[in-house]
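Quick review question:
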């Protein structure tokens, strides 16, 4: 996935978590315009559930600390639940046991007697042997199909297993999401590094705008930290989806699950989810705050060390699969629930975002006289903030069917 580079640029902003206390339920009204976002069916409040999805390869100690920090820093920790999928070896630290034995007693030391039991009841964990872990997309996909996500109006936060959080992060994220006035908003960006925590909270936000080609597959550019000053900005539309931070209604996780068939795929996971969410009618936004932070040190990518007789063939199939999706082609057996949506088209995505998705899309851009958002041939480029600031929401095909899709159970 990506890292965040610090480039301090002034942007408008002022924010307070106190405003998150003022949520009220809003009635759902029929008669939606394809050109306008569908307003939230209900406005989240302090009772709104937040379900976290955490994928970990080994990393048990940092995974346990991620759960602990999320609970400790939340304004309303009782509304949090956790879905954890960990690839683990016989000598590795188990995320849940590490949390239960070393962190939970202190967390609950000044709480009610049932605090420990009640907290553990909201943590759901699945494990697989290390040799069965086949890359981040595959593992997130396995979590996606198992995750327990109750509540029609619940929110979901998908992250990595080595995260930190600012005070009242749950309120801050919910208020930021609510400011889009869009039931189908997905807040996503590479999280701020924990080493840059002095820019956390409401002081700055991350801009992630654009892809460059790596072996003819789109990879997210380096993100930039923009300082907030003055009036609070709102989340900005983007064409990117970032695996390290994705916050939305949980119907997004159900309607557009991570593709578990993308085994051994690194570059391509994020653009796969981006185009699928967008064509299903979801709108991607960079958050206007830094509520979630990421520890980018010592990333564990030892899943590459586990070689099997079928790995080369599986890796080739994944490459064929993602390239087929990005060029509108079919694959043997079809994409199933992991295909494109019918609310928008790939052509509309490329035209709207000026993005070269590889294959023959460069010819399409030239034919339609569209200047690529990120210049062709750019190596490891930075984000293009001005382009995303100019984006306007693209209409959907059928707003009524989009609204009904939020009712998935």
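Suggested answer, residue by residue:
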């Amino acid at each position: 996935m990506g890292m965040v580079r610090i480039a301090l640029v002034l942007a408008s902003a002022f924010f307070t978590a106190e405003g998150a206390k003022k949520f009220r339920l809003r009635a759902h009204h029929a008669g939606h315009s394809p050109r306008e976002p569908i307003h939230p069916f209900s406005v989240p409040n302090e009772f709104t559930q937040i379900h976290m999805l955490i994928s970990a390869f080994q990393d048990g100690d940092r995974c346990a600390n991620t759960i602990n920090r999320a609970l400790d820093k939340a304004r309303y920790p009782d509304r949090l639940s956790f879905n954890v999928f960990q690839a683990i070896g016989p000598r590795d630290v188990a995320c849940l046991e590490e949390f239960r034995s070393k962190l939970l007693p202190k967390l609950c030391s000044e709480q009610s007697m049932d605090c420990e039991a009640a907290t553990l009841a909201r943590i759901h964990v699945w494990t697989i042997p290390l040799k069965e872990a086949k890359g981040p997309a595959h593992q997130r996909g396995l979590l996606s199909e198992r995750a327990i996500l109750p509540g029609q109006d619940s929110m979901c936060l998908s992250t990595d297993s080595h995260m930190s959080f600012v005070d009242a992060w749950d309120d801050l994220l919910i208020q930021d999401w609510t400011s889009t006035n869009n039931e189908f908003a997905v807040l996503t960006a590479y999280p701020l590094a924990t080493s840059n925590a002095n820019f956390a909270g409401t002081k700055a936000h991350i801009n992630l705008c654009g892809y460059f080609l790596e072996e003819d597959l789109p990879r997210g550019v380096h993100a930039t930290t923009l300082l907030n000053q003055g009036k609070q900005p709102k989340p900005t539309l983007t064409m990117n989806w970032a695996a390290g931070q994705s916050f939305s209604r949980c119907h997004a996780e159900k309607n557009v699950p991570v593709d578990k068939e993308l085994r051994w795929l690194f570059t391509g996971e994020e653009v796969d989810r981006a185009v699928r969410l967008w064509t299903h009618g979801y709108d991607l936004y960079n958050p206007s705050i830094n509520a979630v932070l990421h520890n980018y040190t010592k990333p564990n990518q030892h899943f590459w060390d586990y070689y099997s007789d079928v790995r080369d063939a599986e890796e080739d199939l994944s490459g064929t699969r993602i390239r087929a999706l990005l060029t509108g082609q079919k694959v043997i057996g079809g994409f199933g629930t992991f295909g494109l949506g019918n609310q928008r088209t790939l052509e509309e995505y490329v035209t709207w975002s000026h993005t070269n998705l590889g294959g023959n899309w460069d010819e399409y851009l030239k034919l339609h006289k569209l200047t690529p958002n990120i210049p062709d041939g750019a190596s490891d480029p930075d984000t293009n903030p001005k382009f995303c600031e100019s984006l306007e929401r693209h209409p959907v095909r059928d707003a009524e069917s989009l609204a009904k899709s939020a009712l998935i159970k």
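Why it works: The first strand starts at residue 4 and ends at 11. The CA atoms of residues 21 and 45 lie 7 Å apart.
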